[in-house]
Amino acid sequence: MDITKAESYLYGRLKMLSDEKIHLVTKLNKIKIEIEETDNKIGSMKENVDKAFEIFSPRTKKNDFAKVEIEKLKKHKGELELLYEDLSVKLEDVEEDINQINEALGEEIVVEENNVSEKTEKLSKELYGIQILESQEAERKRIARDLHDSIVQVLTNLVHKCEICMKIVDVDTIRTKLELEIMAKTLRDAIGEMRNIIYDLRPMSFDDLGLDITLERAVKSIDAETDMDVSLTIEGEMRDIPGIVQLTIFRIIQECACNSIKYSKGEKLNIRVVYDEQSVVLEITDDGVGFDYGEKASSNDNEHTGLGLNIMKERVALLSGTIDIKTEIGKGTVTTVSIPV
User: In this structure, is residue 150 part of a structural domain?
Assistant: First the structure.
């Protein structure tokens, strides 16, 4: 049975709204990052006026210039915040329209079961594609924030230190040497931060040593950095699994462990990897407080575990796998993932 003109219109409208939603979410993420960067610039300009240097060279004019620049940045930040609010309202309207269309389609499609399945599958594919794009944008946002909060801030501080050294090198050589020592230490810390970011993007040991050893090293690192007792158990021998599948398995385990450490408030976290003839089974267990799975799975609050669960589901689905989360408030969480190989 062909779809009706009304249904065809609704599908077209839904596609248009979905595209608009992607555009709005992307723009909101960019504005949010720009607001944070502007805020940091204001803070940096306020905090990095070196009082000691004024003893050697009063710079009233430079401070006046800084005040003018700070006011400009504050004005720009206010404009961005207003734009963010306007776009957030538009996004809410778009999401409401999408929900209404979904409800309308659900009411109209009361036909033969085969036709229902076909239309539902078509709709779910479109919405699933949006979820993937949203998760990719969220990952880009995370990387941008990591770089801004660590490396960019450090480099900005080093620029100020260099300017100070150039000004006082002929006046106070002892202080210049101290500043250079601080800069050298800061650079070493920045290199360490950059290595951590690169590791998060793709562990270098993956290509040389494979999944198992990379997991063992990651678990040791996690265990050293958290109060939870983190353990890893590997059963069976790893078969010839494509690299992209291994990396995705690693990301799934990483996401599960991250959620447990952040939210479970438990004492123990066990990661179990089982290789059998047809699949890889992952079992991540914690003894934490648990949560209401139904509420979190449908949550739109990206700052909590709703987005983390969606990202895991998407990664598992892309590998044609299954995911089962058993949790109860006060009784911990067991996440089981099966990936066919």
Answer: no
135 inside domain: yes
Segments in the chain forming alpha helices (H): 5-47, 53-56, 60-108, 113-146, 153-168, 173-201, 205-209, 211-225, 243-259, 293-297, 305-318
Is residue 312 a contact partner of residue 252, using CB atoms and an 8 Å limit?
A: yes
**Beta bridge mates, 229:** 268
Q: Which two tokens stand for residue 117?
A: 């399945």
Pairing assessment for the beta strands 333-340 and 279-286 based on DSSP bridges: antiparallel
Q: What is the CATH number of the domain that holds 238?
A: 3.30.565.10
Give residue 253's identity as a one-letter amino acid code: I
Predicted confidence (pLDDT) per residue in 103-152, tens digit:
777 654 444 444 444 555 555 555 555 555 565 666 677 677 767 767 77
**In this structure, what token pair is assigned to residue 129?**
């594609």
**CA 38/CA 45 separation, integer angstroms:** 11
Question: In the predicted model, is pLDDT for residue 296 greater than 80?
Answer: no
Range of the domain at 292: 208-340
Strands 333-340, 268-275: pairing is: unpaired
Length of the chain: 341
Does an H or E element contain 268, and which?
A: strand 268-275
Residues 3 and 119 sit within 8 Å (Cβ to Cβ):
yes
Q: Say how far apart CA 215 and CA 218 lie, in whole Å.
A: 5
Which residues, other chains included, contact 305 with Cβ-Cβ below 8 Å and sequence gap of 6+? Answer: 259, 262, 263, 291, 296, 299
Q: Any idea which residue has 């979905």 for tokens? A: 18
Examine the pLDDT at 164 and tell me if it is beyond 70.
yes
Rounded to the nearest 5 degrees, what angle is found at the Cα of 313, between the Cα atoms of 310 and 316? 150
